[in-house]
From TrEMBL:
The keyword Lipoprotein applies. This is Lipoprotein lplA. Keywords: Lipoprotein. Belongs to the bacterial solute-binding protein 1 family. InterPro entries: Bact_solute-bd_prot1, TAT_signal. The keyword Lipoprotein applies. PROSITE patterns: TAT.
């Protein structure tokens, strides 16, 4: 039995989806939480010298990326090149991370893990939390309180870990001397991480670890090409035109519907058409206004309610087979976490094309926006140690951050050829039966604590790779980044998820007709009083002085 694998060889399940929602993600930098902003953390972080960026040139992609965020693209797996000259480890290293895939067998029962350790030159031992129950934050808190810390611990950006700044100062090693400016060049794979990724790991003017990049792009609508071709294509000149197309495609008697019933995701797409900000807008006086407080958000809620009233959403909001329905055409479109996700449909419908919707003006006048995503899934700091140990850990993360297509990338993600994976007729890796058993959970855990920049890779579907790259270029024309990315709000870490859920529940009630639009104002007032205003204060104190004014 074989199993084909995607670029990273692992699943981050709902985590990246949550990061892509933009409105709840909390960065982990600039101000360290609590009172750190008032003590100068924001100013220190704004002036820190980020690691020098030096692009990895050992491989030439088929489609080049760029500094604006366009991802490099590959049509096939390249011939691997070596990026690390010597094994990084001298002994045992311990770590804490999380897996978003089925848990792999432990080290002593896992040949894939043992072979990786042989290449590393020592023993990498990991505590791996599963994405169930109280999840990673509870495990993290337990380990942190024990005072018996592993050598490194992954810090996520949006799972509610509070007091990040004081925690880092008390327990972890300041890596600024090892990574700031040209110092990072000693670790070439870390130097190949882009500056925007590194901002995540800056807290109180210090660099605390290597970031874990994810796609820089945010959510997009993906549509079944053949279905939308029936109404002139998956694009529109206005919100009303899009709704008319959706209504034409919806035929309940034939079990055909235009849109998946993920109302908050649909609202996110609609607010882009109305030109709403990406979570927070920087005003001319350098204050912040939240998405929820804008007329554009109100207009988006009203229009999404209009879409619901028109019956264009699939009626079962708890359905778990929407991706399959988009693939077979019974649902015409679905919101996914980024443009790269188009590859997920190919396993279900290889002969079908899928389109990525570019934001358009809601009324033909307002300029639409495209919300870029958070761009990383956190960073991995090291507990305080002597210099030799710190450099060993940096060498390890350098190995584990090796770029796509390198020898080290293949070892980390696929293992040994002939044992953990084979090469199929198209020249792409396919896991063996033992590789399918031993690798996925560990690979997910490794990639959640260390990763290179992402690439576009759709093995066997060159046209998809070209198309995704072209659509990314179009999305970048409207791109807007959340100005608080790379900033930390302790209030958001503590109550952000709770108060956002309260507001979203009311919004869903409005969209589905169970509440009136007038109730939105009171819901926003509650959001502000129970934490939103305090989050604003913390983000304003840590605001990047170079953050552009929205609609300025």
């Amino acid at each position: 039995m074989t199993s084909t694998t995607s670029q990273a060889g692992f699943s981050r399940r709902g985590f990246l989806g949550l990061a892509g929602l933009a409105v709840t993600a909390a960065g982990l930098s600039a101000c360290g939480g609590g009172g750190a902003a008032s003590s100068g953390g924001a100013a220190a972080s704004a002036s820190v010298k980020l690691p020098t960026y030096k692009e990895f040139t050992g491989l030439t992609p088929d489609i080049a990326g760029n500094a604006k965020g366009l991802q490099a693209g590959y049509f096939k797996l390249p011939t691997a090149v070596q990026s690390v000259k010597t094994p990084p480890l001298k002994g045992k290293v311990t770590g804490l991370t999380e897996t978003f895939d089925t848990m792999s067998p432990g080290l002593h029962d896992n040949p894939f893990w043992q072979r990786l350790n042989a290449k590393l030159g020592g023993d990498l031992e990991l505590q791996i939390a599963e994405d169930i129950g109280d999840g990673y934050p509870a495990k993290f808190a337990t380990v942190l309180a024990s005072n018996d810390l592993p050598d490194m611990m992954w810090v996520p950006p949006n799972q509610g870990i509070p007091n990040v700044g004081p925690m880092l100062e008390a327990k972890f090693q300041d890596l600024t001397p090892y990574l700031s400016g040209d110092a990072v060049l000693e670790y070439p794979n870390l130097a190949a991480l882009k500056p925007d990724s590194w901002k995540t790991a800056v807290v109180n003017g210090k660099i605390w670890g290597a970031p874990i990049p994810s796609t820089p792009f945010g959510q997009v609508y993906v549509g079944n090409h053949d279905v939308w071709a029936q109404v002139g294509g998956f694009e529109a000149g206005s919100a009303d035109e899009f709704l008319e197309k959706a209504k034409e495609l919806t035929r309940p008697g034939d079990q055909k519907y235009a849109l998946e019933p993920a109302y908050i995701n649909a609202l996110h797409m609609v607010t882009e058409w109305f030109g709403a900000p990406n979570s927070w807008a920087v005003n001319k006086d350098r204050t912040l206004t939240h998405l929820y407080e804008t007329d554009e958000y109100m207009a988006g809620v009203e229009f999404t309610a209009k879409m619901f009233a028109a019956g264009v959403f699939y009626p079962d909001s708890k359905a778990t087979d929407i991706r399959s329905r988009v693939a077979n055409g019974s649902v015409a479109a679905q919101v996914v976490s980024g443009p790269h996700d188009i590859r997920g449909y190919r396993a279900l419908a290889k002969g079908t094309q899928f389109d990525i919707l570019i934001p358009f003006s809601a009324d033909g006048k307002v300029k639409p926006v495209y919300d870029m995503g958070y761009g990383t899934v956190g960073f991995t700091p090291f507990k305080k140690a002597e210099e030799g140990k710190i450099r060993e850990l940096l060498s390890l993360i350098n190995y584990l951050s090796a770029p796509f297509g390198t020898v080290e990338y293949m070892q980390k993600n696929f293992g040994e050829l002939g044992q953990d994976y084979t090469i199929d007729a198209s020249g792409n890796p396919a896991r063996t039966e033992t590789g399918t058993t031993n690798a996925p959970g560990l690979v997910s855990a490794l990639n959640i604590m260390s990763s290179p920049e992402n690439v576009i890779f759709n093995p066997g579907f060159d046209d998809d790779t070209r198309y995704v790259s072209q659509q990314e270029e179009k999305l970048l024309e409207f791109a807007w980044r959340n100005p608080t990315n790379g900033s930390y709000s302790d209030t958001n870490a503590k109550v952000g998820a709770k108060i956002t859920k309260q507001l979203r529940d009311k919004v869903v009630d409005i969209i589905t007709g169970r509440a009136k639009i007038d109730e939105l104002k009171d819901a926003v007032k509650r959001w502000k009083s129970e934490g939103g205003d305090k989050m604003r204060d913390e983000y304003q104190a840590a605001l990047d002085p170079n953050a552009p004014v929205f609609r300025g």
